[in-house]
Amino acid sequence: MKPSTRRDFLKFSAAAGLAAQAGPLAGNLFAAPAAYSRRGGKTMVVIYLRGGADPLHMLVPYGDEHYRRHRPTLRMSLEDGLIQLDDMFGLHPAMGGLQRAWNDGALAPIACAGSVHPTRSHFDAQDWMEFAAPGNRTVRDGWLNRYLASTHTEDASEFRALGMQELLPRSLRGLYPVLAVPRSMNSEKGDRTLDTFEKFYGDGSDIMEGGSEMMGRREEDAAGVVESGRITIETLRRFREIVSGQKKRQAGDTVSGSVYPEGGFGSALEQIALVIKADAGLEVAGLDYGGWDDHTNQGDTEGRMADRMRSVFNGLGAFYQDLGPRMKDTTVLVMTEFGRTVKENGNGGTDHGHGGSMWVLGGGVKGGKVHGTWDGLERSALYQGRDLPTNTDFRDVFATVMANGLEFEPGADFFPDHKPRLLKDLY
Amino acid sequence: MDPMTRLLSLTLAAAVGAAPLSAQGDGEPPPLNDRERAAHVLNRLAYGPRPGDIERVMEIGVEAWIEEQLTPSEDLGVRLEAKLERFETLGLTVAECSKFVLEGAPMGEDPESRRERRLMRRKPVDELMEAVPLRAALSERQLDEVMADFWRNHFNVSFTKGQAIWTQLPHYEASVVQAHLWGRFPDMLVASATHPAMLHYLDNHLSRKPPTEQQLKQIERRERQRTGSEQRGEEAAAIAAQRGLNENYARELLELHTLGVDNYYEQDDVIAVAEILTGWTFTQGRNASYEYVFRPNLHAEGDRKVLGKRLREDEEGGNAQGMELLEMLGEHKGTADFVAMKMVRYLVADEPPQDLVEEVAKTYRKTDGDIPSMVRTIIDSEEFWSRDHVGTKFKTPYEYLVSALRAVDADIQSLDRLEGYLRDMGQPVYHCDDPTGYYDTAYAWLDPGVMALRWQFATDLAAGKIRGVRIPDTLYDRIPSHVPPELWQHHLTRMILPGGAGERTRAALATVTSEYLAMHRNPDLYELGPRLVGLLLGSPEFQKQ
Per residue in B504-520, pLDDT tens? Predict the structure, then answer.
């Protein structure tokens, strides 16, 4: 039996608990239920830049002799305001929000990291990265959802994971129930709505008698609607309590002095920070930022991509400052589905490429240096003669960051078809 | 016990205590009765029943209703015709629409006229975003609307591309989507490939052959002479050298419009397709028609190999090579399979039954992609009528909102407030950034959390808090006056949930009713009624079709 709805999952998981004594279960969901060892208090925030964010426009290889030739209109230099990291790389000027974290040694860019799969389709590349199973069309659970499923315990907080947007990022999708917090429901009017519909989606106490209801009409809740509604009510309420409680506690507390940028992304980060500070047992949170498919008019130090970078990285800078000492237990991981062509195209933009970059912030990462292997921009060093290569498999980054940032070492079959290699230099 | 643990232990009890849900015991489940059949077609081939629709369909017969829906006719219904009159930009050409955008250019003056200009500029966007759900809610040609949304997502284009596309979408909706609803898929493919909206959305209008060495030298020389700087000359040449192919449209044409991802094609095919389609652009500029044009000077000439087949350059210097490419894709088995799979997923089940997909693909190949024949194959199938697939498909936000408007027979003055709800739920009309279009499966939409947005909408609609939309008293007047207040709930349930309500929903409605009656000596139908309607629209049963 393969669980196909969240309700089935919970059923399955509970049954699996019983069956565990009888023998191991097939399938990667419960590959290593006994092997994990978690210690509480650690959180990971995963940011996905959708569209294929140009790695050479964030981690700019100004020191590479071929860089200027590949990028006649997009190129930038130290004189243009690049934030120098070393003799090869500078951060885009719009990433100034991260300067302090870099100086503190808490920011670790990983060059040429991403998926080794050759696809240049956004949708496959995103799915496969978030399912952590490139080329595999059968896995439908996000890697963070699998983490949650593999580490579930009877006394787990109901608040282990959070998607701070209307719909969950795919990494958090799957059979383990995770709350997506719609912005407009974060209000008193929203609270009243939850009260009104509680009777219809229940608190779970009538599910046993409800057995007959489900039997009468074939698989009444096959799509998992009631289940989803019930979880919505329970967790959204708890979320509201946590956030307002924490706000009250820190009212007038201006120690951090941190200012989040306006807009949905900044305010979502601020809410995540509140939940972390409230010690509510949050382990993973996910957040998307879309629009990075810069086929045209990407801009240089200013422009469309710079605007987007400013809101993302100023937001993360504020988050870093806000959490202060808690950043040692909080890891932020930033990724995108692939890099872009090393050469700019004729429209002031770049096309779909291969190797990208990944970014780890906080959580005890060994920052202050650029990680990954850089082969330069000579044509012979490029993937298919046009793109950055992928020298670090994203699954190894996931495994390393989970091991250190969440104290969870994924079992041998956590990633289908891949045995993760921990990146020793990263911590 | 915290909720999660309680949930786990309860579901465990259910798992141990209850028989597997799929086991039906003795024999086949009974086939659908007439009322169930009518409800099913109104849910799947329409945006849900309005009050009285089920009875009407039963009266003329389900088959006759289907036949009517499959037969093209202009009759959109009187109510809709009147409502569409006020829209000025629907169906206008791109050039005509651009007048609104140009005349609405922001200029100084007083705030009031600035506001008017802004509205003028946005008119093609605002009107289309309002007209699409309005048609879906009010048109008598419901299957047209259901299929139109399928094609809008299959050949997705989006307002989010930027202001230039604002003028292009009203015409795209009319000439690509509506015009080919009941035609052949290959014709719709060509219509999309030659529409400025698609060429713009996926950047094909920018794709061009890279300059030759000779041209580069010329550019360098000219720039050097103009500026007197060697460096500037070299830079100009370097910039020009970058100009060339843009693979965006070529890739999505193969991946999303025809073959399906990584089916039959590789990166070399993508490049060859991009080369073939260089020069496919549209006219631009002052007084331009903004229509598709093939520009030989941008075209990368040469024979190309795509999917193992050689496509010869058009000797007359026209677009015949590209047309041949589209024809080849339209005839390809992969296209038949991919389009069939998506159609079955949309009209039957999130996990499309494979036998039926093959059947529909066969129809595609036999009829050269005749859309009505494919839809007919689906409707005539056993799978379409199977109890496994009836009332089980989770509505997308758009389907949910439109079906709610229909269920209460809403009196619609304007739908401009709908946009905000659709935006919150993640599905505003013609705003899907990704070329995939919006997904149509529960997997994409059913996250814990989003249910709350549906409840909010249901409550607002029933309470009359959505400007421009109200529930007419006539809805409540359908309940005969002799019916006692305790039974109002049953009449409203029957109207809004034709598939019936589960025990939990019935119990919840009874509680709300008795609480109300305990507080009110003189129960008011127009007070309790809306409350019950809001709850029914937010109930689990109403989320599915």
Answer: 999 999 999 999 999 99
Nearest CB to B450 within list A14, A166, A210: A166
The answer to whether B177 touches B195, Cβ cutoff 8 Å, is no
Angle at B182 between CA B180 and CA B183, to 5 degrees: 60
Question: CB burial class (10 A; 0-12, 13-18, 19+) of residue A380?
Answer: exposed
Written as six digits, the tokens of B265 are 């094609």
* Total domains, chain B: 3
Q: Give A324's DSSP letter.
A: G
CB B433 within 8 A of CB A290: yes
B residues 142-161 closer than 8 Å to A (CB): none
Is B267's CB within 8 Å of A163's CB? no
Confirm or reject contact between A417 and chain B (CB < 8 A): no
Strand A179-180's sheet: what is its strand order?
A179-180, A161-163, A284-289, A43-49, A330-336, A356-362, A107-114, A392-393
Q: Is B52 on the interface with A (CB under 8 A)?
A: no
DSSP string, B325-368: HHHHHHH-HHHHHHHHHHHHHHHT-SS--HHHHHHHHHHHHHHT
**Contact (CB<8Å) B388/A218:** yes
The A residues from 384 to 403 touching B (CB cutoff 8 Å) are 384
- Find the distance separating the first CA and the last CA of chain B, reported in whole Å: 35
Structural tokens at position B154: 């299959």
C-alpha span between B314 and B322 (Å, rounded): 9
**Cα distance between residue B422 and residue A387, in whole Å:** 38
Burial class of residue B110, CB neighbours in 10 A (0-12, 13-18, 19+): exposed
| Average pLDDT, consecutive stretches of 10 residues, N- to C-terminus, chain A (427 residues) | 45 39 30 37 96 97 96 95 97 97 98 93 89 85 94 81 89 88 81 91 52 40 82 88 88 72 92 92 94 93 96 97 95 97 91 96 97 96 94 97 94 89 95
Residue with tokens 């020793």: A424
Q: How many CB atoms lie within 10 A of CB A227?
A: 26
Backbone angles phi, psi at B407, to 5 degrees: -60, -35
Task: Let me know: does B470 contact B417? Beta carbons within 8 Å.
Answer: no
> Distances in Å between the alpha carbon of B509 and those of A194, B501, B533, B537?
16, 10, 10, 12
B489: in domain = yes
Cβ neighbour number for residue B270 with a 10 Å cutoff:
22
Per-residue pLDDT reduced to its tens digit, A178-187: 888 887 777 7
Residue B423 falls within a domain, yes or no?
yes
| B245 has a chain A CB within 8 A of its CB | yes
Note whether A365 and A425 are within 8 A (CB): no
All domains in chain A, ordered by first residue: 31-178+257-426 (3.40.720)
Angle, CA B40 vertex, CA B533 and CA B508 arms, to 5°:
30
The whole domain housing B457 covers 393-543
Q: Give a yes or no: residue B49 inside a domain.
A: yes
Query: Is the distance from CB of B361 to CB of B260 less than 8 angstroms?
Result: no
| C-alpha neighbours within 13 Å on the C-beta side of residue B337 | 10
Write the ipTM: 0.81
The sign of the dihedral angle between the CA atoms of B444, A6, A151, A410 is negative
Q: How far apart are CA A133 and CA A139, in angstroms?
A: 7
Phi, psi dihedral angles at A354 (to 5 degrees): -130, -95
Contact A224 B426 (CB under 8 A): no
Q: Rounded to a whole number, what is the distance in angstroms from the first to the last CA of chain A? A: 40
Asked whether residue B104 is domain-assigned, the answer is no
Most B CBs within 10 Å, among A123, A157, A193, A230, to test the B interface: A193
Contact B502 A217 (CB under 8 A): yes
CB contact, 8 Å: A251 with chain B?
no
